[in-house]
Specification:
By secondary structure, the protein is an alpha/beta fold. It has 14 helices and seven strands. Helix 11 packs antiparallel against helix 12.
């Protein structure tokens, strides 16, 4: 590893361990015939970083499985020594030479069921030491990473921007199709603003017509202005993601479903997230959750207004 900095050497060493663990997990899932798609950093390391493990730090491992195979996938992870980790999402952890975290997804925030099905059909096969898996095609990956940063986190990260820059430079992306999908799913504001930051910071080559196609639609300029204020804080603010999804998700029905799932996520999620006993404690938290969320929302809005005043 001559010529690498100490940080790059450490990044490579950690990623090698995590890829070895991922190979073990894929072997278990493949033995049970569970198709899996590698998301975000782990998929990009294999498909677009040419396995130069020193170039891209990786946190948890994000895996996508079909909803009907979630229970089977969870069983495989438990058989491999993983335990459910306190989180709103389905996250498993195994402690060995280091901590391994696997975030198990059955859906993605930016796509409806039909859109996700089409993205999976277009996905590409990759191989990790004899274990096959899938990764999104470059166009789908580009839209997913931009919308995930812009909508789910409401915060742009250096690694996320670097991933988008690499995808744009390595592939002949179909920007017309990406813009059309973004508008179909009402993602033009979060995706457009993230990509404007990408062009400004990285000088990423991108057609002007593509950026123009992601301008806010009529009636959405005020929401876009508020969104730009959120991104300008250049830091993650807990809770912004859900509020922004309520602004930009497709139909009123979609927004109602999102709000209902966030306010009342269900006893299983609450028990898992807050490690409560499945009796009166979970019931009380579930009942009082709307009041807690109202206080949190007021605090978030106060932060934004205070930032605007400054």
């Amino acid at each position: 590893m001559g010529g690498l900095s100490s940080d790059q050497v450490q990044t490579a060493a950690v990623n090698l361990l995590r890829m070895g663990e991922l190979q073990r997990v894929l072997a278990g899932l493949n033995a049970t015939h569970i198709p899996v798609t590698l998301l975000k950093g782990v998929g990009l390391l294999i498909s677009d970083y040419q396995r130069d493990y020193h170039n891209r730090p990786m946190g948890d491992t994000d895996l996508l499985v079909a909803p009907e195979r979630e229970a089977d996938a969870r069983h495989v992870l438990e058989e491999l020594g993983y335990e459910l980790f306190p989180s709103r999402e389905v996250v498993y952890r195994r402690l060995a030479a280091q901590e391994y975290l696997i975030d198990l997804h059955t859906n993605l925030d930016h796509l409806d069921r039909n859109g996700l099905s089409l993205a999976c059909e277009r996905s590409l096969t990759v191989d990790l030491s004899g274990q096959p898996a899938r990764v999104f095609a470059p166009d789908d990956n580009f839209l997913y990473i931009a919308s995930h940063m812009g909508l789910h986190h409401a915060y742009v990260t250096p690694h996320g921007l670097s991933d988008l820059d690499r995808l744009a430079r390595r592939h002949d992306l179909d920007y017309v199709r990406i813009a059309r999908r973004a508008r179909r799913h009402r993602l033009e504001v979060p995706v457009g603003e993230v990509l404007r930051i990408l062009v400004r910071r990285f000088g990423t080559p991108m057609p002007d017509e593509f950026i123009k196609a992601l301008r806010p639609r009529a009636g959405g300029r005020l929401a876009a202005k508020a969104y730009r204020k959120v991104l300008s804080q250049d830091r993650a603010v807990h809770g912004w993601g859900v509020l922004l999804e309520l602004l930009f998700r497709g139909s009123l029905l979609d927004r109602w479903r999102l709000m209902r799932s966030y306010v009342w996520p269900g006893r299983e999620v609450i028990i898992r997230r807050y490690q409560l006993s499945p009796d009166i404690s979970a019931w009380c938290y579930h009942t009082l959750r709307p009041l807690r969320l109202m206080r949190r929302t007021r605090r978030i809005l106060s932060e934004l207004l205070h930032g605007s005043a400054g």
